[in-house]
Amino acid sequence: MPLATGARVAALTLAAAAASLLVLAPGPAAGQGRDAPAESYAAPRTAWGDPDLQGIWSNTTSTPFERPAEFGERAFLTDEEFAAAQADAVARVQAAEVSSNEGSTAGPDHWYEHLGRVSNRTSQVVDPPDGQVPALTAEARERHIIGTVNRERLAMPFDSWEDLSPWDRCITRSIPGSMFPTFYNNNYQILQIPGYVVILYEMIHDARIIPIDGRPALDGGVRQWMGDSRGHWEGDTLVVEVGNFTDQTPLHPVRGEPSQVAHSADLRVVERFTRVDPYSIEYEVTIDDPRTFVRDWTVALPLTSAGAPDHMLEYACQEGQQAVRNILSGARAQERRAAAADAGR
Question: Is 183 helix (H, G, I), strand (E, B) or coil?
Fold first, then answer.
């Protein structure tokens, strides 16, 4: 993953401070299903009458992506478990703020967004009922894992820039990966004009333009890193259908198998954005790729208002930066040392 620049360090510091406040944002009381839509809530409208999703939102959450085994098929925490989860999240943030260690994959602990929305869900994966990503198909098990996070399963050494993921190369995390929370930079700015919704992603600075004017999808021969998005309104919910993907990105670039295996070009994604209260959007996404997974699966997580900021700071990442060159040159150096050792035997 690209190294942080001065601008990015400043952004991370502010993001960590903002994340520590999110748990204090007004919302439903503990144990009342705080991720469920409020029945009496009416979403605000834009000047032209569409439900208003605009603002800067964070999807940082303490909820694990897949459900811990001890919960089985139980989708929600009890009141006592929820209170304990809140206290644990606050303790992690407080510990991170004074930590000077180097962290793990992505830098020291104080860079991370540890808190965000404390949900009463037991996992972000809400279907299948066990909260687990479905098994891979036989075809998918033969594909390589994309990226450098899960190094144990990588085919080493790196022979080409193509062995690094588009995220490593500062291109994209694709869809739905760009909508899943990671270590930090979990902010999203949503803008609307008549006929379009635009999502600006802090991580990798993607900007996705979603037509909602009824135009047809692109021809199937046109493949794009983030697919081809087409949206429409179902009541107050923005429904976005995405197709025309490449087969060069994983579903979730920071997860291990099976999420980090390259999906097929047949991937279809359906997203749902619903404003559920003044401070929250419920985001739900269903992944359908029968060449990769034995069944479709669904993730749900909250987008929480980031408060007063009216813009996001720059994520200073450019293709390659120094990482690609250094990784490839390091791999060649390893090969030279191995060859010299063999010759000396």
Answer: coil
At 237-267, the pLDDT tens digits run: 999 999 999 998 888 755 555 566 789 999 9
> Looking at residue 33, what is its pLDDT?
41
Residue 344 lies in a domain: no
pLDDT-derived band of residue 208, with 50, 70 and 90 as boundaries? very high
**Spatial separation of the C-alpha atoms in residues 92 and 82, rounded to whole Å:** 15
Q: Structural domain of residue 162, as residue ranges?
A: 6-36+45-323
Q: What is the DSSP letter of 164?
A: S
Residue 166 in any domain: the answer is yes
Q: What is the dihedral of CA 10, 13, 18, 23, to 10 degrees?
A: 160
pLDDT at 320 (0 to 100): 59
- In a domain, residue 337? The reply is no
Across 47-84, b (16+ Cβ under 10 Å) vs e yields: eeebbebebbbbbbbbbebbbeeebeeebebeeebbee
Average the pLDDT over 270-285 and give the result: 96
Q: Are 121 and 75 in contact (CB under 8 A)?
A: yes
Alpha helix (H) residue ranges in the chain: 6-22, 79-97, 138-141, 323-343
Note whether residue 330 is domain-resident: no
Number of domains forming the structure of the chain: 1
Contacts of 277 (CB under 8 A, 6+ apart): 27, 28, 38, 41
